[in-house]
Amino acid sequence: MQEEELRRGQWLEEEDERLAMIVAISGERRWDALAKDSGLKRSGKSCRLRWLNYLRPNLKHGHITADEERLIIRLQKQFGNKWSKIAKQLPGRTDNEIKNYWRSHLRKKAPVYEQECFEDNTSNSEQKSSISNRATVLNSSNSDDSFSEKGDCYSADSLANEVTLLDGIPSWSYEQSRMEHHMYFCSSNLCSCYAPWTSEDNN
DNA sequence: AATCAGGTCAACCGCAAAGAA
DNA sequence: GTTCTTTGCGGTTGACCTGAT
């Protein structure tokens, strides 16, 4: 049988529509067969990628929030370049998107943040113990247990690191509704505020 | 206005693992 | 147990965009 020339490069709108339709009918499997059946001059692999990274329902596109950013940094530190694993913790985001975001935004930022963290840690051990307490609360309040492996409680170090990382993210919104500016940890040029500690947190 | 450099992101490639025959 | 096919993953590429000169 004559090998048909496969299209490459950017997808056209009508190709997207056709692919979405055929996936709705056939389901997300047998991509080679699906690609042939669809009449698209695309490889199964290409169809699969397009579907997973762009057409799949409930995908978020663009603007990665500060919440997501800090989660990516933390998970990358925890798992390394296991993008699919990291992506599972960020609903609506694809491994490809996270990988790209890491390479273009965070890879450069992370060492700077870590350095700041190191400097901050060495001068703020009291804050660290307070953060350690908070780490436990953050973990227990996270209803999605896929978020952390069993028994994964963030160390004071990693949490202190995390808080410091956030200092570099102006639009940080993590639990913003619950947070207030905390005077104890706000210095003139490097604000390290996080949620004020309350008796409620200890329950 | 032209061009160059650096950044971004969608798509491709190659490999390995998983599953089917 | 072996071979073939399919799927999933991470790294890389290349087109496009934007800002600086």
Word description of this protein:
The protein folds into two domains: 13-55, Homeodomain-like (Arc Repressor Mutant, subunit A, Orthogonal Bundle); 66-202, no CATH class. Helices cover 54% and strands 0% of the residues. It has helices at 13-26, 31-38, 44-55, 66-79, 83-88, 95-122, 125-140, 156-167. The longest helix is centred in the middle third of the chain and has 28 residues, at 95-122. The chain is elongated, with a radius of gyration of 22 Å. The structure holds a DNA duplex (21 and 21 nucleotides). InterPro entries: EOBI/EOBII-like_plant, Homeodomain-like_sf, Myb_dom, SANT/Myb. Residues 118-149 are annotated as: Disordered.
Largest sheet: none
The overall average pLDDT, rounded, is: 63
* Helix content estimate: 40-55%
Summing up helix and strand content along with how strands pair, one would put the structural category as: mainly alpha
What is the H-and-E element order? HHHHHHHH
- The tally of domains stands at 2
Rg is 22 Å
Strand content: under 5%
Q: Tell me, what's the shape?
A: elongated
Strand elements, count: 0
Helix count from the secondary structure assignment: 8
List the keywords.
DNA-binding, 54% helix, single chain, disordered C terminus, 8 helices, elongated, 203 residues, mainly alpha, Arc Repressor Mutant, subunit A
